[in-house]
Amino acid sequence: MTILVVTGTGTEIGKTVVTAAVAAAAAGRRVAVLKPAQTGLAPGEPGDAAEVARLAGAHVTPVELARFPEPLAPATAARRAGMAPVRPHEVAEAAEKLATEHDLVLVEGAGGLLVRFDDEGGTLADAARLLSAPVLVVAPAGLGTLNATALTAEALRARGLECLGVVVGSMPDRPDLASRCNIEDLPVAAGAPLLGAVPAGAGALAGADFAAGAAGWLAPELGGTWTVPLL
User: Fold this and answer.
1) C-beta of residue 20 within 8 angstroms of C-beta of residue 214
2) pTM, two decimal places
3) Could you give phi then psi for residue 208, rounded to 5 degrees?
4) Strand-pair partners of 77
5) Is 52 in a helix, a strand, or coil?
6) The sheet that has 194-199: what strands, in order across it?
7) Cys-Cys link to 203, which of 11, 17, 157, 160 (CB 3.0-4.6 A)?
C-alpha cells in the first residue's frame, strides 16, 4: 500500500489526527501527506498537512495543493474566492508523483467523501478511483455514527472503492454507552474492520508524545499494536 486516502463521515471528527497517527506509526519510512484543498485559513497559517508533520515527526513531507480563505466546502470556497478549484485528476497526479519519492502517501480529504472539489461535482472519491487507492474512514465515537459510517461505506462500494477500515477519531476517556457499543457495531455498519481509536485530546500533545503513543492507537494493518477492546 503506497497511497492511502483518508476520509471521514463529516467534518471536525479527527481526520487530521488519525492521518498524523498513521504517519507517525510509519516512522522509518518516507511519508508524504497531501491535503488537496485547505479551507478556512489565511496564507501563512499552518494547515492540516503541517499539523500532521508537527505531530508525526520529521519523516513527514506536508503538501498542500490549494488554499481557500473561507471555511466552506472546497468548490464553494474556490468559487467565492474567484480561484481555480482543485480537480480530482490533479489530486491523483500529485499523489502519484509523491509516491515516486516516498514510501507512503496519505491523501487527507476535506469534510466527507462526497464533498465537492469543483462545480462539476468532482470529489475525493473520484480521486481515490483514479488512484485505485484504498480508503480509510474516520468516524466519531458516539450516537449517530453508525448511520453516517454505513452511508460512507455504501458510497465507497457503489464506486468500486475499497474501504480499508474505520478508525474512531476521538475516543473519550470515559466513553458513554453508545460509544462503547459502537466499538462492536462500527465494523458491521462499515462492512470493514475497526482499525483503531485515537484518544480524545491527542491532537493537543507535543509531537514527541503523540508519535510515541500513535502505534498504540492503531491496529497492525496500519502499523500499530491496537486491538479491539472487550466491552
Assistant:
1) yes
2) 0.95
3) -65, -40
4) none
5) helix
6) 60-68, 31-39, 104-112, 3-8, 135-139, 163-171, 194-199
7) 17
Mean pLDDT of 151-168: 98
Residue found under cell 467534518: 11
Classify residue 213 as exposed, middle or buried by CB count within 10 Å of its CB (0-12, 13-18, 19+): middle
- Mean pLDDT, all residues of the chain: 96
Active site residue 97: no
pLDDT by residue (tens digit) across 109-133? Answer: 998 999 999 999 999 999 999 999 9
Taken in order 144, 165, 214, 34, is the CA torsion positive or negative?
A: negative
Instruction: Copy the grid coordinates of residue 195.
Output: 482499525
From the candidates 6, 26, 33, 35, which is the catalytic residue?
A: 35
pLDDT of residue 84: 97
- Calpha distance 11→139 (Å, rounded): 10
In tens, the pLDDT along 61-105 reads: 999 999 999 999 999 999 999 999 999 999 999 999 999 999 999
